[in-house]
UniProtKB/TrEMBL annotation:
Gene Ontology CC terms, in alphabetical order: endoplasmic reticulum
Homology family: Belongs to the TRAFAC class dynamin-like GTPase superfamily. GB1/RHD3 GTPase family.
Protein's name in the database: Root hair defective 3 GTP-binding protein
Keyword Hydrolase set for record: yes
UniProtKB keywords: Coiled coil, Endoplasmic reticulum, GTP-binding, Hydrolase, Membrane, Nucleotide-binding, Transmembrane, Transmembrane helix
Lineage of producing organism: Eukaryota, Viridiplantae, Streptophyta, Embryophyta, Tracheophyta
Length: 212
């Protein structure tokens, strides 16, 4: 339990988009991030609301992000963007937990926060985990499609795109073998990339220039 106390979970940006300057300063001081210079990594997670993002981060990185109580029904647990120190991982790693997409609390028309938080995460994260349901792969109206479109669109808005690693996490895997799922997922991703409006400079830029 003491280990979890050291991860100093902090709300970096609240649900209204306000940046927590004092909280970040306290986080840097408490976790000694300020001593690391540029020797640290950032891993962020995105995905639909109530898909288990916070739970996954807690299991992988020994963080203590608040998790949804399934017995109380699906609801928005993470509001805004939270960060925490991944205890016991070298180099110093910051985990970033983003508010879930397509939540009923914001409504289907309010995608501004989603886009801004995705842009923020892509600008600073080395690795972005995309948490998605297995049954969404290959479906035209899948929950992850608007999210991926947002990710690709905002990547174009970064001043100098850097190669970010996208790690797809498939939850509730069906009996379909992974070797069948992977090409369908890759094709889905490529289709979304092709459909995104790109500035002149990147009209013919392949996906691999922006992402691993």
């Amino acid at each position: 339990m003491a280990e979890l106390d050291h991860c100093s979970s902090t709300q970096l940006i609240d649900g209204d988009g306000e940046f927590n300057v004092a909280g970040l300063e306290n986080f840097m001081r408490t976790t000694k991030l300020s001593n690391c210079g540029l020797s640290y990594a950032v891993v962020a997670i995105m995905g639909p609301q109530s898909s288990g993002k916070s739970t996954l981060m807690n299991h992988l990185f020994h963080t203590n992000f608040r998790e949804m109580d399934a017995f109380r029904g699906r609801s928005q647990t993470t509001k805004g963007i939270w960060i925490a120190h991944c205890v016991g991982i070298e180099p110093f790693t910051v985990a970033m937990d983003l508010e879930g997409t397509d939540g009923r609390e914001r409504g289907e028309d309010d995608t501004a926060f989603e886009k801004q938080s995705a842009l923020f995460a892509l600008a600073i994260a080395d690795i972005v985990l995309i948490n998605m349901w297995c049954h969404d792969i290959g479906r035209e109206q899948a929950a992850n499609k608007p999210l991926l479109k947002t990710v690709f669109q905002v990547m174009m808005r970064l001043f100098s795109p850097r190669k970010t690693t996208l790690l797809f996490v498939i939850r509730d895997k069906t009996k379909t073998p992974l070797e069948y799922l992977e090409p369908i997922l890759r094709e889905d991703i490529q289709k979304i990339w092709n459909s995104v409006r790109k500035p002149e400079a990147h009209k013919d830029t392949p996906l691999s220039e922006f992402f691993n």
